[in-house]
Amino acid sequence: MPLTDLPLDELRTYRPSIRLPKDFDAFWDTTLAQARVASWPATRSRVATPLQTVQFEELRFSGYGGESIRAWLITPQNHTGQLPVVVEYVGYNGGRGVPGEKLFWASAGYAHVVMDTRGQGSGWGTGGATPDPHGSDSSFPGFMTRGITDRAEYYYRRVYTDAVMLIDAVRSLDGIDSDRIAVTGASQGGGIAIAAAALSHGVAATLPDVPYLSHFERAVELTAEMPFTEIVRYLAVHRDRIEQVFDTLSYFDGVNFAERISIPAYFSVALMDGIVLPSTVFAAFNHLKSADRAIEVYRFNGHEGGQTVHALRQAEWLAARMP
Predict the structure, then answer these.
(1) What integer pLDDT is reported at residue 138 of this predicted model?
(2) Active site residue 303
(3) Distance of alpha carbon 315 from alpha carbon 317, whole angstroms
(4) Which member of 187, 200, 268, 279 is catalytic?
(5) I need a labelling partner for 24 at 20 to 30 A (CA). Which of 125, 148, 251, 291 fits?
């Protein structure tokens, strides 16, 4: 695999100006206020598994429009006191999976919450269980172009709102330390974690891993692999909608969310990543307001990034900030 982007010394200082809508904050304030008006209390129910060291519960919470979203709540067996929490968002077209496949964070002593991404879960892994009841006008197969000509109807408006509402729900749970909540995820999950960190109250740290969904215009023009090419194919047909599409995407760009993040942040990037260009990751990272920030660079990896090596580094980094 070759390097896919700028040299590392240029990436370290890469801080592009991108579209920022004047009503960006107002749009998200209104969106979240509407979701909270429609919300209802989260529910949790024990899930039987043969595992002896962790406990699984299904968490159902109120997402966008008061719609029911599912998540796993995984905790160390027989723990005492209030647990710090890691909320994880999942990569593109994956789901929360089946009980037992995600054990790392609970094994490290955290309550681990894994959000099911609405409508996704059939591209890899072991599935999802949350529908997206909203339709779309014409779109290219996948999720990237659903509702893409209207910020109010765009698919990721619902997903980002779900992510924030999950944090609201987690803060209300018994046995949880609401002052020690971190958000993480890889690829799409990393992009969602950036948005959730910017839009939520009381998040203590964010750990986006090879995060997707940033610097859309560069990504769409230069990335040769899916899923950004979904937008390319859409615009190849809808030649008159280019400005309209990028205006919509500016409300969902990780760079604009990063500018609103001041909590500790630990990113990762892979320099041979053909799915998420390194410059799009650095564009978000370099716009952070965080005084405590770091980025782990995997020079000879693709979109898999650091995998378990990075997970162990994340655990050490987070333990120093949420003891």
Answers:
(1) 86
(2) yes
(3) 5
(4) 187
(5) 291
Domains of the chain plus CATH, in order, are 8-318 (3.40.50.1820)
Q: Averaged over 208-222, what is the pLDDT? A: 98
Over 80: is that where the pLDDT of 62 sits?
Answer: yes
Q: Which residues are annotated as a binding site for substrate?
A: 92
Amino acid at 172: S
Look up residue 163 and give its two tokens.
């992510």
The answer to whether 53 and 77 are in contact (CB under 8 A) is: yes
d(CA 111, CA 133): 29
CA distance 210 to 321: 21
Nearby residues of 189 by Cβ (< 8 Å), 6 or more positions away:
88, 89, 90, 91, 209, 211
Residue 322: CA atoms inside 13 Å, Cβ hemisphere, count? Answer: 29
Residue 1 — pLDDT band, cuts 50, 70, 90?
low
Counting Cα atoms < 13 Å in the Cβ hemisphere of 243 gives 1
Distances (CA, A) of 134 to 143, 157, 268, 318: 12, 12, 33, 37
Q: Is 247 among the catalytic positions? A: no
**Do residues 86 and 318 make contact, with C-beta atoms less than 8 angstroms apart?**
yes
d(CA 245, CA 235): 8
Name the residue with higher pLDDT: 94 or 79.
94
Closest by alpha carbon to 112, among 303, 296, 292, 311?
Answer: 311
Task: Choose, from 112, 215, 303, 310, the residue flagged as catalytic.
Answer: 303
Cα–Cα distance for residue pair 276/214, rounded to 1 Å: 9
132 is catalytic: no
Q: Which residues contact 297 (CB under 8 A, 6 or more apart)?
A: 8, 268, 269, 270, 271
